[in-house]
Design brief:
This is PaaX family transcriptional regulator. InterPro entries: PaaX-like_central, PaaX-like_N, PaaX_C, PaaX_trns_reg, WH-like_DNA-bd_sf, WH_DNA-bd_sf. Pfam families: PaaX, PaaX_C, PaaX_M. It is a single chain. The chain has helices at about 15-30, 40-45, 50-65, 85-105, 120-135, 190-210, 220-235, 235-240, 255-265, 270-280, 290-295, 300-305; strands at about 35, 70-75, 75-80, 110-115, 140, 145, 165-170. It is an alpha+beta fold and about 300 residues long. Among the domains are: about 105-185, Alpha-Beta Plaits (2-Layer Sandwich); about 190-290, no CATH class. Helix 6 runs parallel beside helix 9 (about 255-265). It is globular, with a radius of gyration of 20 Å.
Length: about 300
């Protein structure tokens, strides 16, 4: 499959069954990329908030988007992440698990991607924009996106054969005291991001004692782990990811990161136990990863060896 043909669902506020299903599979389906039976997988999709009637429809839509592949064995259908999707999600997971630490290492240089495409490539242009947002880029202008991160492993974003022409630059911003001058930091709405951080802290600080006490089990654990990831991943795009010293006083990034790690890792065991119970699979087939696993790049290395 051409990686450009994969169209990951966009993150949306409220109920977004396709996006949350992708989050579920990002938790348990990246490596070793297991085949899930259609019935058990639909049950897990229902567990995280989709109606039973809608669960199978979500899986079919994700196949059409190139996110999932499907195989038939007699009367039984099975689904798993496509290779390009698993790779994109592993990159995204690593970005999510490292952006707080990387922010403090920033040296003042921006990565800038400028791209153009023919009119008939609207879908692929939209796919690239979604991937750029997932990797923490923000649009400085139409077709010009910037990020404080180093341009490592951009190949998964800028695949050949996508009908896109692009240029990647490393640049420093020259502030000018002129009307109309716009800097990279102006792309981010810091007030809205602070509010989003505070909403995250309010919600998950209330739930954290239940998690620490082992009171979230079964479907509740799977739902909570998927949701905390879905809630937290937005900050990789919302937060400029610049050193705390350059941000407004009391910037809540570090508090949110500590809370996410606490909740995410504590839910690994009970969530995995429920997935194994529903699917009847073994721990050699389905695994729950920790924040350290995501940050280390081990998932990417394993995928490279398997694909």
């Amino acid at each position: 499959m051409d990686p450009a043909d994969v169209r990951l669902p966009r993150a949306r506020q409220g109920n977004a069954p396709q996006a949350t299903t992708v989050m579920l599979l990002a938790e348990f389906g990246i490596h070793p990329r297991p085949w899930f039976g259609a019935g058990p997988l639909a049950t897990l999709v229902t567990d995280i908030g989709t109606t039973p009637a809608g669960a199978r429809a979500v899986l079919q839509r994700l196949v059409r988007r190139g996110v999932l592949e499907r195989r038939q064995d007699g009367r039984h259908a099975f689904y798993r992440l496509t290779g390009p999707t698993a790779t994109a999600l592993a990159h995204g997971g690593r970005a999510l698990a490292t952006f707080t630490a990387r922010a403090e290492q920033w040296g003042g240089t921006w990565t800038v991607i400028a791209f153009s495409s023919p009119q008939h490539a609207d879908t692929r242009r939209a796919t690239l924009r979604a991937r750029l947002r997932w990797r923490g880029f923000a649009p400085l202008y139409d077709g010009v996106w910037c990020s404080p991160d180093d341009p490592h492993e951009l190949g998964s974003l800028l695949e050949p054969g996508t009908d896109l022409t692009f240029t990647v630059l490393r640049a420093q911003h020259l502030p000018l005291d002129l009307p109309g001058a716009k800097g990279p930091l102006d792309v981010w709405d810091l007030d809205a991001t602070r509010t989003a951080y505070q909403d995250f802290l309010t919600r998950w600080e209330a739930i954290a004692p239940q998690v620490a006490g082992g009171r979230l089990r079964g479907a509740d654990a799977v739902r909570a782990r998927t949701q905390v990831t879905d809630d937290y991943r937005r900050f990789a795009a919302l937060d400029p990811r610049l050193p705390a010293a350059t941000m407004p006083p009391g910037w809540p990034r570090a508090r949110a990161w500590e809370l996410f790690c606490q909740v995410y890792d504590a839910l690994a065991e009970p969530a995995l136990a429920h997935v194994l119970d529903v699917t009847g699979m073994g721990e050699d087939e389905v695994r729950a990863h920790t924040v350290a696993d995501l940050a280390s790049g081990r998932l990417l290395d394993a995928l490279r060896g398997a694909l």
